[in-house]
Amino acid sequence: MVPENPATLVDDPAGLAEAVGHLEEHDVIAFDTEFIGEETYYPRLCLVQVGSRERVYLIDPFAVEDLTPLLEVIASPDRATLVHAGRQDLQIVARMLGRPARHVIDTQILAGLAGLPWPCSLSKSVRCAIKAPMPSGMTFTAWDARPLSARQLRYAADDVRYLPLLHGYLVARVASFGHEHWAAEAFAAFEDPSWHHTDLSSQRRKIEGTRRFKPIERRVLRNLVVARDEIARAENTPPRAAIPDNALLALTRDRPADASRIASVRGLPRPIAGRHGDRLVQAIAEAQGDTSPLEPQRSREESPDDRVAIDGLWHAFAAAAIGAGVSPALALSRAELANWYLNGREGLPGKASWQRGIIDSLLRPLLADGRALSLEWRDGTLRHTGEERTHTEP
């Protein structure tokens, strides 16, 4: 399950053809990339790692310009493509190929459905499978430098070398808990083109934080986040490098009505103000007459009683999830639970339908009057006893 041979470095079309031919013969392949994402709007691809249970290949995209044959194999539904925390890697495939990959399995999500913490790194997940540490990682390295060092090549190869082994280990654990349907639903989302788009709503929520905004301010900020993304793409720079978050907040607060005032906004780079001031003014003006619905914010701050109730629900949910072999944070965060609780407790919290399925199976029983959560410490972790009982007053 773990290729023992050194990885093959591919730097010409003939080597790519060999790698593609090898991968096409297997029903499970592993995929990862190394990229630099701090300097450009889209990450700069620096290395592609692929492998099977027998071989590992490292493809140099600086030397092999046309990666289409490889991407076609990675995206094909004819085989399972394994990734670990692979959203950005899959976004690269979708952008370069023009469509999402099919039949992708993310072992980090599998780990969260197999009783491991969320998020669990590749090295820690592999350690659970083989009971031995992997070589130390390389968090910061110049992946665009050439030639790559032997240590860089070893690290990059290990990112795919152990994925087939880890996959087999986690699939068995997920099946033992009966969570295959949640895994299948989670992985099906990767085939939705919208899953690969930049999550601008998440950016806006992070900027809002716990601040309280008037409706007009929230609409202005929503428009400005969209405008910033367009500007960053045009400038080929990361959004926060184009317009820092504090400058967006200043624009939201001051709402300048003409481009001449844009340049005076604190924190806004002058070249950006000069080239894109009209676009920012347009975004602000369009928000003034916007009446479209807004995502709900917390209706109020947590009172002491609220905090006790939310903490109680959160810890009970976390215990129930651990007892069921699910990482609580994979399905729900305390902040999401708090927003749901403070906004009327209608429906269920959770983003994706598979996450709401987990929440429905674990949280809803806790909300039923008279239900008790029965757990025991067994084999080094919490486990459900299977005894759900009704509480009766003495």
Short summary:
By secondary structure, the protein is α/β, with parallel strands linked by helices. It has helices at residues 13-24, 68-75, 87-97, 107-112, 122-130, 150-161, 163-177, 180-188, 200-208, 215-235, 239-242, 245-254, 259-262, 270-288, 304-323, 328-331, 334-342, 353-362, 364-367; strands at 8-10, 28-36, 44-51, 56-59, 80-83, 104-106, 375-378, 381-384. It has 3 domains: 8-196, Ribonuclease H-like superfamily/Ribonuclease H (Nucleotidyltransferase, domain 5, 2-Layer Sandwich); 213-288, DNA polymerase, domain 1, CATH 1.10.150; 304-384, no CATH class.
Protein described:
This protein has 394 residues and is of the alpha/beta class. The chain is built from 19 helices and 8 strands. β2 and β3 form a beta hairpin. α10 (215-235) packs across α12 (245-254), α10 (215-235) runs antiparallel to α14 and α15 (304-323) packs across α17. The chain is flat, with a radius of gyration of 24 Å. The chain starts with 7 loop residues before the first strand and ends in a 10-residue tail after the last strand. Residues 388-394 have low confidence and may be disordered.
Question: Can you tag this structure with a few keywords?
Answer:
single chain; 394 residues; alpha/beta; Nucleotidyltransferase, domain 5; DNA polymerase, domain 1; six-stranded mixed beta sheet; two-stranded antiparallel sheet; disordered C terminus
Note the overall shape: flat
> Considering the protein shown, what is the CATH homologous superfamily of the largest domain?
Ribonuclease H-like superfamily/Ribonuclease H
Low-confidence regions: 388-394
Count up the helices. Answer: 19
Mean pLDDT score = 92
Rg calc: 24 Å
What is the straight-line distance between the termini? 58 Å
Major sheet: size, sense and barrel closure?
A: 6 strands, mixed
Could you name the CATH class of the largest domain? Alpha Beta
Count every beta strand, where a strand is a DSSP E run of 2 or more residues.
8
Q: What's the SSE pattern?
A: EHEEEHEHEHHHHHHHHHHHHHHHHEE
Order of strands across the main sheet: 1-4-3-2-5-6
